[in-house]
Amino acid sequence: MPKITGDDLLQLARDAKKVRLEGIRLAESHCKLGAIRAGKLPTNATQSLGLGVGVDQEGEHVLAFATLKLVATYAEAEEGEPAVTVTATFNVQYKIERRLTKKSMERTLRSMTQTIVWPYWREFLQSMTVRMGLPAFPVPLLNIVTSLEEGQGNPDEQKAK
User: Fold this and answer.
1) What whole-number distance in Å separates Cα of residue 24 and Cα of residue 82?
2) How far apart are CA 60 and CA 43, in angstroms?
């Protein structure tokens, strides 16, 4: 993947002005608590993010979705059920205010969706892990420039801290 330049970010900001956020909602979630060892929390965690975009026939309204998943395991665990799994899918609705090329629209909406959904994911994950009887799971702040360089929202796995 080529490096993201300042010009790329400037174009992304210009394109983002052509899109208006209409709404966001949690569409689906799933949490599963596996075998937690007494006095020892899982030591490894990965998060994955999948983004998709659908445009209506007229090209005026867009429904984007983001599916985020956390899987926590023990380092020495054999293949099997993870200790903790939390998944959430958010739907984000946009209205296209001014014309964009198909490539620009997809890139802009993927970046915007990732940026908009991330704080909701952080709160959801922290809340759900507490409800599961675990400490709140800290999710780092989103660094959009790094995320763009790593594939601009394509499903990727990142080590959770």
Assistant:
1) 29
2) 45
Per the CB < 8 A criterion, the answer to whether 94 and 21 are in contact is: yes
DSSP letters along 112-156, please?
Answer: HHHHHHHHHHHHHHHHHHHHTTSPPPP-PPP-HHHHHHTTTTSSE
- Note the pLDDT tens digit of each residue in 2-43: 566 777 778 778 877 888 889 999 999 999 998 888 888 888
Domains along the chain with CATH numbers: 6-151 (3.10.420.10)
CA distances, 1 to each of 16, 29, 134 (Å): 22, 31, 38
First to last CA, the chain: 24
Model pTM? 0.78
